[in-house]
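Design job #97: recover the sequence.
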């Protein structure tokens, strides 16, 4: 394979660049090898990234062992957990595109021959995958791994989100302040991406399902020694890829995208996959409409069950065989011949994976549910599409009809829930939280957790043009498109209107005559944007609908 770095490192024409590298201690031997970029989103803000400095050192070792020269650079990585429930969440989804852009700029400006992408968390891993597809050079994803489960709380190992559930319990008088303080100390016992199957661990699993990570590496706990060995092996492999391929778009094919949708469904992954996989497909010149997403999801059984759908957490899933075991179980539904970063096919990679053990991973002919984790809804309240997660919805709540209680922001909804305004039988409507209206498409994570804590999880529903955390459960629908800020019907729902969520029939209906909906829309006026300067103001103008993955289009069209 062609070495891009040699274009700018040959003597005597490019001696100035060689001198710049030598000013940092690089030798002639270093500059004679392939230059491997390492994008490291390490920081001390995000628990899932706290160990990436050590992980990066093992990647560097592997690159040196295989005859390459590592060149490391940093990038942003924001924490959904720290940003939850306040204005900071507006900035989280938009970081995905900044990350993709930063990687593209650094790799292209410095003509690296390949890139190793280090991250663990929600928008960071998707941004890395988007960049890999855009660059189409050899690339491999290395993640930091999940944290271990915490102390026992509410019948299972605690995780970070237990604090929000506990807050609802505290306000409802179910636990006291001393118990709540103890929970704060023990819910997150180690660094790593949060121990449940939220968006972070979902996207790490899907990076592996796409063929962009070494088999079995997505779910190795952050504090396990295997995490470092996998990093070193990834460093060795990326150098081999410079010589032998494949490049990123040879892995990120239409078949790989479809495999990832099926794996997401099989593990009950986050609804945010319905944002990120279309965005990755866009960069990879593949197609992933919401109709295809629904077709693949609904025909893939749910074979691996973990928190938030069950007590086991992601380290338990890893012990049961992780992504390779799931892909082996559903192999008849996958494109087994799809190429991966190992140079082998999916079928070859998973041939030695363990058989389903039954308590976390079940066989294809005896799944937890016949239909998979996500569903795409349509109806007069979602003329485009909307997304929900049947795997996280109690069977009794798969069909729910209730009266609308409307809020024009997440904060207003959260206050109403905490103050007891929201009652059994309500459909909580949270609008103007979409990609344009938020702007930034915040997660309604906190509202769902507060409903759970107040004992309303099986008595209320929540719908929004925003999105949800992968750890949410209850009856919820997000990604409603068109969003309220674009004049979608969600903008004109009124308090007391009857709304039906019918997951089996894939419907989201407002029980108001069509003529009345049209009358209300004709009288509707677009509200003033919440943010009028800075990156979010630009994002609000450029971002596409959630139905298209909230992408920022950038391809030249004839």
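Job complete. Output follows.
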């Amino acid at each position: 394979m062609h070495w891009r770095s040699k274009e700018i490192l040959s003597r005597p024409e490019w001696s100035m660049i060689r001198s710049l590298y030598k000013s940092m201690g690089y030798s002639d031997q270093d500059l004679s090898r392939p230059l491997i970029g390492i994008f490291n989103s390490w920081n001390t803000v995000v628990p899932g990234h706290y160990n990436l400095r050590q992980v990066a050192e093992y990647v560097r070792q592997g690159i040196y062992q295989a005859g390459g020269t590592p060149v490391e650079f940093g990038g942003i990585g924001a924490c959904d957990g720290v940003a939850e429930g306040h204005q900071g969440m507006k900035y989280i989804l938009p970081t995905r595109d900044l990350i993709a852009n930063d990687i593209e700029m650094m790799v292209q400006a410095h003509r690296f021959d390949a890139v190793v992408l280090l991250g663990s968390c929600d928008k960071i891993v998707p941004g890395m995958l988007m960049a890999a597809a855009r660059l189409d050079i050899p690339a491999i994803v290395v993640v930091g791994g999940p944290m271990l489960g915490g102390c026992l709380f509410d019948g299972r190992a605690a995780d970070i989100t237990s604090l929000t559930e506990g807050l609802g319990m505290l306000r409802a008088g179910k636990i006291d302040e001393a118990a709540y303080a103890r929970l704060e100390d023990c819910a997150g016992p180690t660094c790593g991406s949060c121990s449940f199957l939220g968006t972070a661990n979902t996207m790490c699993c899907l990076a592996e399902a796409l063929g962009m990570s070494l088999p079995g590496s997505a779910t190795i706990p952050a504090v396990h020694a295997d995490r470092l060995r996998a990093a070193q092996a990834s460093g060795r492999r990326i150098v081999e890829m410079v010589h032998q391929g494949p490049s990123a778009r040879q892995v990120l094919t239409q078949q790989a995208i479809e495999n990832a949708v099926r794996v997401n469904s099989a593990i009950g992954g986050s609804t945010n996959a319905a944002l990120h996989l279309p965005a990755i497909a866009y960069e990879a010149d593949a197609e992933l409409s919401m109709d295809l997403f629904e077709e693949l999801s609904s025909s893939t059984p749910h074979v691996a069950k973990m928190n938030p759908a069950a007590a086991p957490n992601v380290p338990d899933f890893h012990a049961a065989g992780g992504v390779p075991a799931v892909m082996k179980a559903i192999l008849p539904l996958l494109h087994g011949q799809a190429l991966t970063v190992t140079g082998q096919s999916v079928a070859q990679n998973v041939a030695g994976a363990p058989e389903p053990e039954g308590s976390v991973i079940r066989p294809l002919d005896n799944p937890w549910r016949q239909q998979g984790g996500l569903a795409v809804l349509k109806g007069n309240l979602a003329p485009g599409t909307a997304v929900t997660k049947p795997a996280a919805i109690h069977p009794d709540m798969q069909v729910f009809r209730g009266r609308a209680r409307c809020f024009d922001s997440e904060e207003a909804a959260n206050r109403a829930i905490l103050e007891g305004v929201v009652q059994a039988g309500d459909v909580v409507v949270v609008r103007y939280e979409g990609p344009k209206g938020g702007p930034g498409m915040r997660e309604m994570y906190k509202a769902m957790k507060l409903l759970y804590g107040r004992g309303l999880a099986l008595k209320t529903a929540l719908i929004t043009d925003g999105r949800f955390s992968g750890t949410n459960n209850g009856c919820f629908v997000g990604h409603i498109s068109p969003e309220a800020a674009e004049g979608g019907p969600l903008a004109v729902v009124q308090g007391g209107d009857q709304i039906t969520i019918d997951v089996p029939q894939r419907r989201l209906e407002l029980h108001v005559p069509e003529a009345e909906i049209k009358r209300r829309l004709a009288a509707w006026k677009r509200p003033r944007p919440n943010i009028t300067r800075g990156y979010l103001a630009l994002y609000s103008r450029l971002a596409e609908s959630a139905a298209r993955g909230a992408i920022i289009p950038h391809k030249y069209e004839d």
